[in-house]
Amino acid sequence: MASEGVRPRRVAATVAAGLGLLVVAVAFALGTGPTSVDWDRVMTFDRTWLDARKVWDHRLPRAIAAAITGAALALGGVVFQVLVRNPLASPYILGISAGGSLGAAIALAFGFAFAGPAAFLGCLAAVAVVFVAGNPRGALKSTSLLLAGVIVNATLSAAITFVNLVAAPSDRDRILRWLVGGFPEAFETSSLLAGAAVTVLLAAFMFLRSRELNLIAVSDGLAARSGVDVRRMRIEFFLTGSALTAAAVTLAGPIPFVGLVVPHVVRLVLGSDHRLTVPVSVFGGAAFVMVADALAASIWREPLPAGVLTAAIGGPMFLVMLRSADKEKAGLDD
Fold it and tell me: DSSP assignment of 71-119, as one string?
């Protein structure tokens, strides 16, 4: 278990460092794109200048959406890894993202332009199924929750494949782009505000529950002996992680590896105390997706979906971390 002796000064310094990382990522996202901009014109905030419109009307909303998505996925990864006590867990392993993807795929297959609301409803349906299936005898046990999520994920993935096969050829490209994960050219302000509100409120809630996260991460028995209502906390954590995943998938589709890699990197650097890992995972996830999306929009002749870059970066990074952990474990065994 993480030490109970982490000082408030260290928490404050860690949060400040995370904010600094976020500021750097915002600057990178606003300054990076397929074309250069004249910053003297940008800083006039005069929308009659094309450069100002590029930054304030296009790059800034994308950066905000990327920050919300990354923060939600990284924090969701922290929560689900605690719930199932498995470092390989992610916001997508329990089938919630697959539910959202199926909802979006069905909407796109029927010719609807906006898949976000359908994805949100699909996430809710998947959450309900996993909750019921993974909640035998009124307790969200790690093994039953993980098994239920894997089965739901596999079933919904098969349904997504079926919808993609029967969709009209003209709709398959839109479905594929959604499944890769990325950000549209324009956002509704209401969607960004809703996503930001959900992410900020749940991040604050999980920070206040850091002690319970630390205890449940070790064992339910230890948490119960320490006065934690384990059943209630596990349900709250499950619903929190599910809401974060739904918020991210609704905005951007299934952006891969963020909820898996970012919590790992944060734990390697800071340890496992969730008073540190929760806020830094939020800032780190936001920064990671913002930078990935900015690079994806500028490294090819056409903008790539952000999910392509997060997979290209996150996959090898995770393999390196896994290899390092195996070597470290082998050294301890010797």
Answer: HHHHHHHHHHHHHHT-TT--TTTTSHHHHHHHHHHHHHHTT-S--HHHH
